[in-house]
Amino acid sequence: MSFSTLCHERFSARKYIDKKVEEEKIVAILEAGRVAPTAKNNQPQRIYLLKSEEALQKIREITPCTFGAPMVLLVCADESRAWTSPFGENYNSAEMDATISCTHMMLQAKDLGLDSCWVLFFDKNKVRQAFALPEEIKPVCLLDIGYTENCAPSPSHANRKPIDQLVTVL
Q1: N or C, fewer C-beta in 10 Å, the chain?
Q2: In Å, how far are 8, 41, 59, 63 from 67, measured between CA atoms?
Q3: GO molecular-function annotation terms (predicted)?
Q4: Cα 71 from Cα 57, distance rounded (Å)
């Protein structure tokens, strides 16, 4: 599958079948996140693979948005490892680096025949407590991953703004 096709065909899956993701696919997905670019190559992304019944139950108690996925990636950022802007903007790259890593894993999953859903609808403090995250580790997003059948994109999925509304040529 070409990269363009991959980008156009992926969508947020909201119904998974009861089928475990093969270990070699999990390894490939995590590897895609590991090699994602980060500011100054500081690699502040921290990924928690939730696949045990106990871990999945914990996350399901925090958010309804796991949709029966057999695995969920809790994508976090170690703010102590992130690049910090020297321009007085009070900004570091932790969250952006983590989301770049998540995008790589999402696209790798699709390339391997899996679907996913990027989730922000969760209480970060509850996640921090449930999984005993260290203080410097910031929960950023969840990525549900699994197999689907008869699952289609939401009706608004194809509604995309024209390129001229998104890009300004200078």
Answers
A1: C
A2: 22, 34, 11, 10
A3: oxidoreductase activity
A4: 11
Global confidence as pTM: 0.95
Which stretches does DSSP call E strand in 23-163? 45-50, 71-78, 115-119, 137-146
Domain count, the chain: 1
- As beta bridge partners, residue 141 has 75
Q: How far apart are CA 140 and CA 75, in angstroms?
A: 6
Q: Dihedral sign, CA of 35, 38, 44, 47?
A: negative
Rg (CA), the chain: 17
Report which DSSP code applies to 35. Answer: T
Q: Whole domain around residue 39: which residue ranges?
A: 3-166
Q: Are 136 and 79 in contact (CB under 8 A)?
A: yes
Contact, 142 vs 59, CB < 8 A? yes
pLDDT, one tens digit for every residue, the chain (170 residues):
899 999 999 999 999 999 999 999 999 999 999 999 999 999 999 999 999 999 999 999 999 999 999 999 999 999 999 999 999 888 899 999 999 999 999 999 999 999 999 999 999 999 999 999 999 999 999 999 999 988 888 888 889 999 999 999 99
- How many whole angstroms separate alpha carbon 49 and alpha carbon 106? 14
